[in-house]
Design brief:
Pathogenesis-related Protein p14a; alpha+beta; globular; 3 helices
Length: 160
Amino acid sequence: MTKPALALICCLASVEAAAQDARFPWKAGDRAPEVAGLQLATSRTKMASVLGMPSDSQSLGADVWTYGFSGKGLLIVYARQDGVIEIHVLRRDAGSIGGVRVGDAEAEVRARWGAPTEAESIDAGEETSYIAGKWMVVVVYDTVTRRVKELWLGPPSDRD
């Protein structure tokens, strides 16, 4: 066997082994990661100091609002009682969650994080969830390109 062929076999074997070892970097009990300078439960004052004024906002009722930051590629869901409850990353330059960014291929995400905890088809694409106890990361893929079109961090939702 030639040296280049042997090197290629070794390289492929190590890539396959790495993919099999891929796993979500957090587990139940871990603190949720910071995204775009925010943590879950961040106050409205802190959110404003980090992101500035939102480009738009909408009341969802019961003391819950969405704040859009279109210039930053972010959407924040905020509850008066709980602070920031969801952080949505809508553009590649808006940041990453655990090294995953909008625009990454599904294969790259799975090589990094492994198989998701849950997956379902929704109108916006295919939504996969990686759950770490009291919070989760949701990755929404474009059904045609199989690339990340949105990432968000928040509490697990009931899926009846």
